[in-house]
Model the fold of this input.
Amino acid sequence: MAETAEYSDDSIRSLDWKEHIRLRPGMYIGKLGDGSAYDDGVYVLLKEIIDNSIDEFVMGAGKTIEVTMSDHKVAVRDYGRGIPLGKVIDCVSKINTGGKYDSKAFQKSVGLNGVGTKAVNALSNSFIVQSYRDGRTKVAEFEKGELVRDEVEKETSQRNGTAINFIPDDTIFRHYRFIPEFVESMIWNYVFLNSGLTLNFNGQKYFSERGLYDLLTRNTDAETIRYPIIHLKGEDIEIAMTHGQQYGEEYYSFVNGQNTTQGGTHQAAFREAVVKTIREFYKKEFDASDVRASIVAAVAIKVQEPVFESQTKTKLGSQNIGPEGPSVRGFINDFVKKELDNYLHKNPAVADAMLKRIMQSERERKDIAGIKKLANERAKKASLHNRKLRDCKVHFDETHERKQDTTLFITEGDSASGSITKSRDVMTQAVFSLKGKPLNCYGLTKKVVYENEEFNLLQHALNIEDGLDELRYNNIVIATDADVDGMHIRLLLMTFFLQFFPDLVKAGHVFILQTPLFRVRNKKETIYCYSDEERRNAIAKLGNKPEITRFKGLGEISPDEFGLFIGKDIRLDPVILKDANIKGLLEYFMGKNTPARQLHIVNNLRVEKDDESINPLVAEDVESVVLPVAV
Done:
């Protein structure tokens, strides 16, 4: 019988503020990550700092915010009122200390708990805060939350405001780096939600005049929308919407300036209100899926004392607009019913285009109803013993503390999937094995998803047939060999996702697995290298002609080694969609314009010669061809 651990006065510990944040960072910033996902902790740190500057703008102090960033360092400077000089240290190092508790002007702010900046401080190797206020300035510097420099106040000619520089702690955010595309998306959202604000990011200016209208304009392809963007504004609510050509629904939702990437009560209320209003306007009981098919919409509301379902505030849980206000559902439903109905009556051409789009969705749904039913029955039977899927025990659509880690590896062939299956974490990591190269589905209708058994089983494994609400894995990782065939399979899979489930990519769920190209070792140490530069550095470090192995395929890597590459040190490259024109992108890379692609390859071909030290037994040079392909 196991001994019961002693439980006494000595078992009780009291942690100070920084110790608690560093011991349980997930409570404050969600998942840690390495910067490869848009919701990784390093971006939460950045957002906490910018949010304070945004609050100053909302208060009418400072119309410009400057953000400067490198791979590992951030500087934010605003021109607000500046932290009162006597409270600079307290505001960044004393938990539950801030200036928003008693101010009615901040009732509809996101950061009301006095925690955000302190979390950034505690989780940074270096954190420097400087306040400029009425001709005087104060500087304080911290390391991992510990005060290391406290300068006396002195005179300054700088404008009022606050400057914060920080470097995240690389022992907590392992192998992290800031990806500019993620930060740029965050910056755009700030200016869309704060008309009149200018945000300078690494020397480039970001500004919006029309709010959510500009957001949809930037994120949708003008050639694919079926009618001009409908833009509706009211007190504490703003909506922009249109219908496009893509499959599925696409939403951008915000509460008090916070991007609620997982939706919540306001997004659910909007989806419901749109269906109800359109049914009443056209006096026809459309199927809800037909009304919302191909919709692209943005909704932003302001709520007093919002309640979120996690500290990272990605999903709204509030049922009411305020302590004494109407329900979120009723508030949004009343607004949409009145304003959207009025808009459609005043713009008959838009109403006609919307009706045609809805009826097209209805025809498409009925056209594939039969084959969809058969395919789903086959998938249901296959799911009882799906040889392609080796599932995990925890899923993203469940309530579980590890659900953010849930990952599906999509592999090519049995050898690669075998290595990953033997070395994976069975709690959170699943494996889906492809048989050869999947179909190039560019230009095909969604019927092919049900006709093609492999695509249908993948769709059911992910549980995305009816949208992302019940997505079973947070990370969908394409794990293919780093050769020509592997690259081709990557493109075919990305084509599948972009063609039929683009919101999966836009929401930041799709990644490419990086696996080492080389293993460099001697009798004392083994170093895995992901590039030629890392290989050269490893050779220089180990010296004396170490053994060098070049991995040609994932199947060559033993399960014991593979466990090192898909654990806490996993390296993932996010699939980032920079261009809203998905149709044009896919047509160029996956369409029938063979001469244009051939010319692209000829003009961008690079021939690299491998170092002879890769294999000392080979005297002649070995050439490898690298084709640059970007998505």
About this structure: The chain has 21 helices and 25 strands.
